[in-house]
Please model this.
Amino acid sequence: EIVLTQSPATLSLSPGERATLSCRASQSVSSYLAWYQQKPGQAPRLLIYDASNRATGIPARFSGSGSGTDFTLTISSLEPEDFAVYYCQQRSNWPLITFGQGTRLEIK
Amino acid sequence: QLQLQESGPGLVKPSETLSLTCTVSGGSISSSSYYWGWIRQPPGKGLEWIGSIYYSGSTYYNPSLKSRVTISVDTSKNQFSLKLSSVTAADTAVYYCARLPPITMVQGAGAFDIWGQGTMVTVSS
Model:
């Protein structure tokens, strides 16, 4: 089973700052990694698929990078609505799916 | 615009079977060769993939839940369903259904791109 480890568990930043979230896989997942944003009481929203492709309607301040075992989600300049929990998800052993445990992005 | 809606009992007794249905509206469940999945989230915790079904009926389950899970599809009703047997308090969670584009698709390959709002299921006597 491929395990995804996200860090940090909690990230405290201010609006306008740059956010860098990490997702590390226990073995290579190539570029088969997605990122989601989840706000309280809401379903997750797909942000990035295949490591670096923005989903439909996602603002350009969200970007993804990485391949193999190390991946990064970057939010270039935080907006107030960006404070949420972020999850990574791999599909390397398709159609089996694994999620990371999440990173909480909170207002400093 | 495609929408998904979960439905089913909000309270299930321990050792019984949890049954949920996801109704797809605004499009056909058998169009464009999509997969359809179930994901759950215990209170205050992260996301766990339960399993997925192809529109043709092929199923794929999380190995940790495989012995208790059955996912089925009813294309005539534009629905797919989840059954989880022998439930315990550890199965208490918000259950989501979602669309999963195949890995051959250009947009959103292998990622859940449309989600239902989720339904809370509590396991308690």
